[in-house]
User: Which sequence fits this backbone?
């Protein structure tokens, strides 16, 4: 297959980009690939909302910028922060025009919530399913674009570069270029190639590297792992945000149900096993401190008491308002026997968001030619060492727009010039070579490696780290990598094998980044380096 624009991922970043390209270039083909159903993305599970300065009478760009910089703990790129905050309002208005419905009060004004780290109420939301509503809007809009081809159940194995044409490619190779991707067609189990002029990676996060995460099963770090293998630049992977309040269910591993920060924004209080409101001992902002501080506080309370969770107390809140604003949280709690008006909700931190990722510039360009990245898989410079709540959907829309602007300009430059297009002709790219491989005999080799990875990452590279734990993690990651690569070379590849391989790569990048950062900053806390360094740096791998 050949396509003008290739999009990997069907979350808010990929869909926004595809829709804009389709509108601007009706004569071009846009192909969107997703490895599951079209709506099964991290976007779908974003509860809280999208941050934006919509009330200029009480809020300002400068306040939002300052809140983002404070949360990012010194590592945000101020220029990028200003771009996202200032351009974000227009992107929000745009998706509203496309049909997104955010909650309003009786007077018809948008109801703006407040979350941890925000100095003002500026979070637009749709009940407690904001991401799902925004994704619904975009999926509906792209159906009306005949030049968009959305292909589901299509797993991307690798991006195609000069390496696949027989050239030696290293990180020092100048002008590495992307020509397209190899994919597993999950309907036929065949490996096919898709050639593209421009490719956008919007492949989402990597929460499945941990035993407990708010992310769905598809969040396996595919985009970051592919770029690292292709010798692209990755940065700041040590900054993994743990959401402080995932619903704790005894014996349940994998995806945890998220209790949005907006519940605390509306007045819920964190309490330990003694019933004490403990956050005042850790930060003056109490329950609305930035997520890194709240997650570490909960982690400490759990370790001191020897418990597996703390509690979120909503008993004093207006139950009618709670049910109206958080209907899914209310029903989920009821389904496991918790009446939030009478009982506290057991919560514990869970891996939630990757602040690092594929290094990009202000237009979403990666270190590989003709390849863009945006959304959670990208490291734009916005989040620094810790993401401010509800900035992720905003960032995705802003950078999807910027990637679109630059990519359209890029295709005009490439038009009629295969040499500068970096090997656009399909004949130059070989088919996938699976010779010498056999069908896997035991799935246990894959499933057990995944369990081992998730355990070691949770136990050794979690909220609080030490040099000894990181060294242990790296030894075990080396062994997992060796075993999985041997399996990859000898057997027919499958999505399950590729996902485990990608997660092991992501685990390595998180651990290596943590070893190289000799300080505690934002989401990275190492008890052997408890203080911040005077030297600000991004860890680029």
Assistant:
């Amino acid at each position: 297959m050949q396509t003008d624009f290739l999009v990997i991922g069907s979350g808010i970043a990929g869909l926004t980009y595809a829709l804009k390209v389709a509108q601007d270039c009706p004569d071009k083909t846009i192909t969107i690939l997703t490895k599951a159903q079209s709506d099964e993305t991290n976007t779908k599970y974003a509860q809280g909302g999208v941050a934006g300065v919509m009330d200029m009478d009480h809020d300002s760009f400068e306040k939002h910028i300052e809140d983002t910089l404070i949360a990012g703990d010194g590592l945000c790129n101020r220029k990028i922060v200003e771009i996202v905050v200032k351009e974000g309002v227009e992107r929000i208005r745009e998706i509203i025009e496309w049909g997104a419905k955010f909650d309003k009060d009786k007077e018809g004004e948008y109801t703006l919530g407040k979350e941890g780290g925000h100095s003002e109420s500026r979070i637009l939301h749709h009940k407690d399913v904001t991401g799902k509503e925004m994704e619904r809007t975009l999926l509906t809009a792209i159906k009306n674009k005949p030049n968009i081809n959305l292909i589901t159940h299509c797993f991307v194995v690798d991006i195609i570069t000069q390496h696949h044409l027989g050239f030696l490619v290293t990180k020092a190779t100048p002008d590495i270029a992307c020509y397209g991707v190899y994919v597993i067609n999950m309907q036929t189990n065949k490996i096919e190639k898709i050639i593209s002029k421009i490719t956008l990676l919007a492949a989402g996060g990597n929460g499945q590297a941990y035993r407990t995460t708010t992310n769905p099963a598809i969040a396996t770090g595919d985009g970051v792992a592919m770029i690292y293998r292709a010798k692209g630049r990755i940065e700041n992977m040590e900054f993994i945000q743990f959401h402080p309040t995932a619903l704790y269910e005894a014996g349940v591993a994998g995806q945890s149900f998220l209790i949005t920060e907006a519940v605390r924004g509306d007045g819920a209080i964190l309490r330990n096993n003694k019933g004490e409101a403990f956050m005042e001992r850790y930060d003056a902002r109490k329950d609305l401190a930035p997520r890194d501080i709240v997650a570490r506080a909960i982690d400490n309370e759990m370790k001191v008491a020897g418990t597996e969770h703390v509690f979120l107390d909503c008993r004093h809140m207006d139950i009618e308002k709670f049910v109206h604003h958080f209907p899914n949280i209310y029903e989920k709690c009821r389904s496991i026997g918790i009446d939030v008006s009478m009982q506290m909700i057991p919560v514990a931190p869970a891996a939630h968001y990757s602040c690092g990722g594929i290094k990009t510039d202000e237009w979403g360009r990666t270190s590989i030619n003709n390849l863009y990245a945006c959304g959670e898989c990208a490291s734009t410079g916005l989040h620094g060492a810790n993401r401010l709540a509800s900035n992720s959907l905003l960032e995705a829309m802003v950078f999807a727009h910027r990637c679109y602007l630059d990519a359209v300009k890029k295709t005009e430059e490439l038009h009629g010039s295969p040499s500068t297009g970096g090997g656009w002709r399909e004949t130059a790219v070989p088919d996938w070579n699976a010779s010498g491989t056999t069908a896997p005999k035991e799935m246990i080799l894959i499933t057990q490696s995944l369990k081992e990875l998730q355990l070691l990452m949770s136990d050794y590279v979690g909220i609080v780290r030490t040099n000894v734990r990181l060294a242990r993690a790296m030894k075990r990651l080396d062994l997992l990598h060796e075993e999985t690569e041997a399996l990859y070379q000898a057997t027919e590849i499958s999505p399950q094998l590729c996902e485990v391989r990608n997660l092991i790569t992501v685990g390595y990048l998180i651990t290596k980044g943590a070893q190289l950062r000799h300080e505690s900053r934002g989401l990275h806390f190492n008890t052997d380096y408890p203080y911040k360094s005077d030297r600000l740096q991004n860890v680029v791998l």
User: Anything to note?
Assistant: The longest strand covers residues 190-201. Residues 13 and 396 are 5 Å apart (CA to CA).
